[in-house]
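Follow-up to my earlier ticket, as requested here are the two runs.
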Amino acid sequence: MWNLSTHSTNKASRPYRVLQMARALIAGVALAGALAAEATNRAAPKPDWSASDIPSQQGRIVLITGGTSGMGYEDALALSRAGAEVIIAARNPERGQEAIASIQQAVPDARVRFEAVDLADLASVRSLASRLQTRLSRLDVLINNAAIMALPTRGTSADGYELQLATNYLGHFALTGLLLPMLRESEDPRVVSLSSIASARGRLNFADLQAERDYNPYATYAQSKLAVLTWALELQRRSDAAGWGIRSIAAHPGVAVTELIARGPGLNSEFGKQWAQDRDEYHSAAQGALSTLYAATAPDALGGGYYGPTGEDEKRGPLGFARMPQAAADSDAAELWQVSERLTGVIYP
């Protein structure tokens, strides 16, 4: 596996690193300022925007990662109701078929199917992209939804990378890059990537990106979601510069009642017990999905925008522009991109 600490320390002397950090900070602040300025010139979502406001998605093809449960399932259900052709990509075929059966029961004419993928295995990601390229002429919307959270012990992916970073970020970075030519065939291509309010507590630690020296379940999760947000903003910048025509939009769900805690830290953990105690303060998976659905379908959804609930601490509440965490402006997006291409072997055009 590529040694990130060597990459960081061998580049040059300390003055070079100081200059590099200064450039990254200036670029990050400029990007955040530009996006904020553009956002003020665009309409914010109606606070009461709901799935019933989704415009017709007839003729649109949507791929959703992790669509067998939680918010991904709600995305698939709502988009099927709106007439989209929906592809659910996830690890478990049995759960995939259960999700499809449930959607078809609710929407008898739904066009929904399952594709197997393990985002923590880059060979599996490449296989999915290859299959889609042979079966579809284009892709209109890619929803990078799948995630794992705060695994108690450090795990590694099939490629040897820390499991949360691999699943939440690197797999999606690779999948998006591989599907970029198909997205560019769409008249209105969108990439919607799920971050988290935890991203505000994250830091991109390039000296120990894989948490080999210091693994903290929650800090590592926050780092993976900060990486998603930083990359989503950079994808929009690069799309604008290269003329790809992609709307790259970030969203977060607030705190929704899903299986994420049960599959991560566990309901018997201290975090899980506190989460269960505060459960009434959170909202449903369907409500948590609204920011994603707005980003994926609303005509006014802003490329480079960040959407989420706007209530207390953005845990729940009316839909709107999410607060851009300072951590995203402070992050070195160019270095993250370079590292991501090297780790995944996927080079964007």
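Run two:
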Amino acid sequence: MVLLAALALPPPATTPAPQPAAPARPATPDSAAPMSSEAALGPGKVLWATSADEAIQRAAKENKFVFLEFVRKECGNCKRMDGLLYPAFDFEALLVPMVPVKVDLDSPIGREYADRYNVDEAPAILITTPEGRLVFLMAGFFNQGDFFRNAGTAVEGYRKFAKVVDSQNIGKLTAKEALETGTELYRRSDPAAALPRLKRATSAPGATVPQREDALELLAAVQLDLSQPGSARQTIEQLLATTKDKPRRERAEIFRAQIPLAENRPAEALLLFHKFQKDHPTSPHIQRVNDLVQRLEERTRTQ
């Protein structure tokens, strides 16, 4: 829903080109089963969780990551992926600091993950912290070398980033440091940790105009993600009152028009989108706005 965030931050997923492979039979996917005490060792010679909730609880207790493999019924590439990954020694080594679980992408919990992490196809592998901070995401069918190389690099990179975040005194960060870590935390699907850093970046001594405006733009998106529409509106109005950057203004106006949607006020959103159409007929975002207006007009007619 947040167009501003979509414009500012491309999704972090990496999707290598497909490679042929022999089919293999996967472990039984478990989308949201209740916690079980009868689970057995699975691929990678580790204890696979029987549900995402169980995986999160175990990972938190054992100080590990959560390894989620997204599958779908009748997914041939899911079976081929399992045949590539499961027999490899590298897979066993990768899972040592993780609690793995299979998730049906079409299940309710699977759709929740799909929305949060932009997972739109199976197979896909997602690695997160127990709190949900993104460590690694790879969607689509990929070969063994691509997977292990990218997963290993991502885990190592996350560990370094986490050390930086954990050592920060937010009140003493420079604008540059606060903006960089706040942006990265938001990209990693952790808006709560991004929030205080972005606030710091908007007011840190010595902040440049671009740094301050970048922080305000992203802060508004974070606040809306955290169900704080009133704060998001104040932040985006603050940006609109000061920015002289035309592309940024257009993005901010689009974002402002979306805030009423979060408050279930489509008529108000429609008025703001109509104003954008009138004020910016040649905007590079006009087609997307036109599509939104069409859908909103249809919605308001049926209410």
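The only thing I checked on run two: The chain has two domains: 3-165, 173-302. Let me know what else you need.
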